[in-house]
Amino acid sequence: MRILITGGAGFIGSHLAEAYLENGDEVYIIDDLSTGSLDNIVHLREPYRKKLFVHVDTIMSRNMMLELVGTCDVVHHLAAAVGVEYILDNPLASITTNIQGTEIVLELCNKFKKRVLIASTSEVYGKHMHAPLVETDNIIYGPSSKFRWSYAASKLMDEFMALAYFRTTGLQVTVARLFNTVGPRQTGSYGMVIPRLVKQALRNEPLTVYGDGNQTRTFTDVSDVVWAFMRMVENKEAFGQVFNVGGIEEVSILNLAKRIIEACGSSSQIQFIPYDKAFGKDFEDMQRRVPGIEKIANLTGFDPKADLDVILTKVIRYMRSHLKE
Ligand SMILES: NC(=O)c1ccc[n+]([C@@H]2O[C@H](COP(=O)([O-])OP(=O)(O)OC[C@H]3O[C@@H](n4cnc5c(N)ncnc54)[C@H](O)[C@@H]3O)[C@@H](O)[C@H]2O)c1
């Protein structure tokens, strides 16, 4: 099969590309390298030179997308402005990419009748306190003056657009609401917590914990997410549906920082930073984010294999070998 991965030079996209190539498929990537990097896929270029086709371009280029969607059998749409810090730094471009970019992908998948998976985010739930979050839960956002919600709102619009195509034209589209996904090649540069804290620990610098550190998250290993994506896009029962994809172990960011210090054998201390100092006044955090994964488990047998210790071991090993002093 020919697989198009938008954002394929990014963290998750590069792992997805690798899995499809190992499977014997052809992989087409479009990525503008805004947060991704060719370094993420450089190891694939030589062994798969006849099966991997990389286009450094934006998904906003309709002509390029027309050619790529027309060529491929399946589309995984991962290209997006990602990460709270990146969104706050690039408010307008982020909304444009996430809404207009997805519109182009969906319109062309519909034109050529191609199956498509849309990567959404647990951020769409907004500021819930209960757990677990299930796909039918209400959505609670702060005011539009708090720009951090623009990421959630733009991804929610993507979901509506995808579901509207399914209802109106029968487009074979599936939405994956990803909870925090972690693994090698994720960069801490755009606010992703584990790589940022691991980097600080390996450098014996203070680990910066925002707020009081009691906010909790669950983390999923990227290999579990890739496994789920490959099955979801194939499954007819998944079309026109939204699925949480996430891990099961809930951990506070403070405890996460302590575990990272221990796992790295670091002499770092923990430094608490108030949210407004870290992100300015536009910021509000989500206190808890735990996925209900019954729906995806029923569909695919999803059962995340990597727990937090395994995830941390993998990330620390990767960052030790890649950290530039
Ligand atoms: N990593 C997570 O924890 C997480 C959680 C929830 C949702 N997601 C979603 O998963 C997807 C992949 O995220 P990731 O963590 O791999 O981040 P990433 O930043 O590594 O990947 C996004 C990729 O999209 C590319 N891109 C951005 N704008 C583009 C454009 N206009 N044209 C072409 N390429 C463009 C970037 O260069 C990057 O390579 C995103 O849609 C994100 O919203 C990720």
Please characterize this protein's 3D structure:
By secondary structure, the chain is of the alpha/beta class. The protein has a single domain, classed as Rossmann fold, CATH 3.40.50. It contains 12 helices and 13 strands. It has helices at 11-22, 42-45, 62-71, 84-89, 91-112, 149-169, 193-202, 222-232, 253-264, 275-279, 294-300, 308-322, and strands spanning 2-6, 26-31, 52-56, 74-77, 115-121, 173-178, 181-182, 207-210, 216-218, 220-221, 241-245, 250-252, 270-273. Helix 2 links the parallel strand 2 (26-31) and strand 3. Helix 5 packs parallel to helix 6. The protein is globular. The chain starts with a strand and ends with a helix. Nicotinamide-adenine-dinucleotide binds at residues 6-7, 9-13, 30-36, 58-60, 78-82, 97, 101, 119, 121, 178, 180-181.
The span between the termini is: 42 Å
Question: Could you tell me the number of beta strands?
Answer: 13
CATH topology: Rossmann fold
H/E topology pattern = EHEHEHEHHEHEEHEEEHEEHEHHH
What is the overall silhouette?
A: globular
Brief summary:
This protein has one domain: NAD(P)-binding Rossmann-like Domain (Rossmann fold, 3-Layer(aba) Sandwich). Helices cover 42% and strands 17% of the residues. The chain is built from twelve helices and 13 strands.
Describe the secondary structure blueprint for this structure:
Layout: E1 2-6, H1 11-22, E2 26-31, H2 42-45, E3 52-56, H3 62-71, E4 74-77, H4 84-89, H5 91-112, E5 115-121, H6 149-169, E6 173-178, E7 181-182, H7 193-202, E8 207-210, E9 216-218, E10 220-221, H8 222-232, E11 241-245, E12 250-252, H9 253-264, E13 270-273, H10 275-279, H11 294-300, H12 308-322
Parallel strand pairs: 1-2, 1-4, 2-3, 4-5, 5-6, 6-11, 7-10, 8-13
Antiparallel strand pairs: 9-12
Helix pairs in contact: 1-8, 3-5, 5-6, 7-9, 7-12
Nicotinamide-adenine-dinucleotide (NAD) is lined by residues 6-7, 9-13, 30-36, 58-60, 78-82, 97, 101, 119, 121, 178, 180-181.
